[in-house]
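Dear Dr. L.,

I hope this message finds you well. Following up on our conversation about the binding site, I have prepared a predicted three-dimensional model of the protein together with manganese (II) ion. For your records, I am including the exact sequence and ligand specification that went into the calculation, followed by the structure tokens. Please feel free to forward this to your student if that is useful.
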Amino acid sequence: MEPTKLYALPKLPYEYKALAPYISEAQLTLHHQKHHQAYVTGANAILEKLDKARKENSDLDIKATLKELSFHIGGYKLHNMFWENLAPAGKGGGVPKGELAKEIDAEFGKFDRFKKEFTLAATSVEGSGWAALTYCTKTERPIIMQVEKHNANIYPGFSILMVLDVWEHAYYLDYKNDRAKFVEAFWNIVNWDEVNKRLVMLLKK
Ligand code: MN
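The resulting structure of the complex is given below.
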């Protein structure tokens, strides 16, 4: 039988203590090793469940299974993007450069207006979820998106340029339930070079 390809927890592109004081070593370790890992494990378990049911030709609750699968794949993929669009403290933050700066200025007028709208998107996501910056190649506009859980409210097919995890598990050790304070801290460690790289890649397609 062919070896089964499974999802795997990626290594972080920096050390666990690299984001402190904005995200502590303890918080980042827990978030990566426990929560991100749970989506990897969850997605793999469902793939195996699908394989098994097909092999045995047994019945499955397809609706529930696919819903669960989209939740875990969403969690897996969004965390991958999140780690990559953060930079070690002292090396991130500031303002975007390059193509991204041009697009943000053209759409929002100035960076501060974008920052305000993205912050409001992040602080007001209902329940657990994400704020994301996307880009629509049809209208050629960067558009902000809220994601409830990992998989609801998304604009299908729109490429995500930047995400911010606002699940309580992302910040409760550092900020208790003060999501706004965590969102404020995020701006100090956002990796604008990575976000710009994603945009440039998309515009090249
Ligand atoms: Mn998370």
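In brief: The mean pLDDT is 96.

With kind regards,
A. P.
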